[in-house]
Amino acid sequence: MLTREEDIDAHALRRQGWTISAIARHLGRDRKTIRAYLNNERVAGVRKPAGEDRFEPFVDYVRARLAEDPHLWAVTLFDEVVALGYAQSYPTFTRQIRTRNLRPHCEPCSATKGRPAAVIEHPAGEETQWDWVELPDPPASWGWGKTAHLLVGALAHSGRWRGHLAPAQDQAQLVDGLDKTTRKLGGLTHKWRFDRMATVCHPETGRVTATFAAVAKHYGVQVAICPPRRGNRKGVVEKSNHTAAQRWWRTLSDDVSVEQAQASLDRFCELRGDARLRAAGHGGKASVLTIAQREPLAPVPSTPFPATITEDRTVSAQALVAWRGNFYSVPPELARAQVTVSQRLGEPHVDIATASGIVIARHELAPAGAGVMVRDHGHVIALEQHVLAGHDTSRPHRKKERIPPGPAALAAAEQLRARNQPDSHDRDDGDVVIDLGAYDRAAQGRNTLT
Questions:
Q1: Residue 161 is inside which H or E element, if any?
Q2: Which domain, by its residues, includes 165?
Q3: Same domain, 157 and 275
Q4: Same structural domain for residues 179 and 229?
Q5: Per-residue pLDDT averaged across 94-118, rounded?
Q6: How far is CA 234 from the centre of its chain?
Q7: 141-163 pLDDT, tens per residue?
Q8: DSSP string for 314-377
Q9: What does the mean pLDDT of the chain come to?
Q10: How far apart are CA 356 and CA 373, in angstroms?
Q11: How far apart are CA 178 and CA 207, in angstroms?
Q12: Overall domain count for the chain
């Protein structure tokens, strides 16, 4: 087999008038090989098969099976052709599928990368795109498990985006994130765009759920649902997701609270996200902040949609419950117990209930992340009494101290000895007699009977 470089040299020398024998001696090849390449009977870089093509009889079957099922595993197909008489190895089989390009392209299952993409116009104030981002390995102090959730909202026209950290993706957390992020973005666009998340629509049909329809009416926006498997439709927020994960979350310190992390994200968006330059029309550029300030956004309602956020908490030994960067008291009997904390958005208080659902405390809501301790006066008094009642003022025992048995222990020991040594009158004939008076009584009895 000639290399491509040798094939080029052979054709060039032939064009210069060299004979086949001279070219063969120059390249160190056989004359028949040189002649075959000069006559285009062989292709440079392609080795001539050593024997018959043993895969050729199976090509039609393999092509038909992969046309029926483009995702059929090669090992499954290999089992089928082996049963039909295929005698070569599995690596040879998969190589033949690749080199012959027998597996067809499946358009519905292919990724969006590489597809033709049309430019989608986003008029100012028209659309806000929303998406959840799962962030792995949050700080252990958050108590969120292995995953944190970030709701990202981006103005499609200007590219301005903000995010909201949440422990879950339920509808109450979604509504809370929508309200807070919308206020950070500066207002409402005409429509909100989502993918097919179950908290917004029915994933199978794309129809908005009844519960989220009430949310959309409260904020006065239209709801646009992306077509299935069309990630390009939310390209602005998808890029923001990538930025949030790689430029902010990746470098977040492990010793920050949730509120500190949220403040860090807001600063990042203001300093980095809003400073990006984008095309502003007529060949000019402007920052994201400048373009966003020109967008005609509608004002946000004065109160959020009244969804109720509910989360489980463990009461501390001081009968305190942590919630949004603050601490709220409960009766001392619930120390180290599991409780449920609920907050209705827009309401100025927070409720704490037992596992059975009984509300046992209601406190005025403190600003998130303030680090304050909100305690009911009755809870403080009850906790002090509970602690004092269980406090023992006795001197603790020394490790090397002589403490002999006391009167109670000696009396109990005497009772045990008496129990183990019963009276001789109660013994039967089989007992061992050690009293000589018993012998005397027995002898007198025999004399009387005689």
A1: strand 161-166
A2: 127-293
A3: yes
A4: yes
A5: 78
A6: 21
A7: 999 999 999 999 999 999 999 99
A8: E--TTSEEEETTEEEE--GGGTT-EEEEEEETT-SEEEEE-TTS-EEEEEEPPPTT---EE--H
A9: 87
A10: 25
A11: 19
A12: 3
Q: What is the CATH number of the domain that holds 144?
A: 3.30.420.10
Please tell me the pTM assigned to this model.
Answer: 0.66
Beta-bridge partner residues of 327: 322, 373
Taking only the tens place, the pLDDT of each residue in 208-228 is 999 999 999 999 999 999 988
Mean pLDDT is lowest, of 39-48, 295-304, 420-429, for: 420-429
Distance CA 413, CA 404 (A): 13
- 330 sits in the region (left: phi over 0; alpha: psi -120 to 50; else beta) called beta
| CA distance readout (Å), 134 to 146, 152, 271 | 10, 11, 23
Segment 307-335, tens digit of pLDDT: 999 999 999 999 999 999 999 999 998 99
CA distance 384 to 387: 5
Q: Is residue 266 part of a domain?
A: yes
What's the distance, Cα to Cα, between the start and end of the chain in Å?
137
Following CA atoms 445, 446, 447, 450 in sequence, which dihedral angle do they give, to the nearest 10 degrees? 120
Examine the domain organization and report whether 237 and 340 are in the same domain.
no
Mean pLDDT of 343-360: 93
- How sure is the predictor about 450, in pLDDT bands with cuts at 50, 70 and 90? very low
| 3-class DSSP assignment, residue 292 | helix
**231/366 same-domain check:** no
Identify whether 431 is part of a domain: no
* Predicted pLDDT of residue 135: 96
**Residue 154 near residue 237 (C-beta atoms within 8 A):** yes
> Looking at the structure, do residues 212 and 334 belong to the same domain, yes or no?
no
Cα 103 to Cα 98, 188, 397: the distances in Å are 8, 48, 81
Q: Three-state DSSP class for 380? A: helix
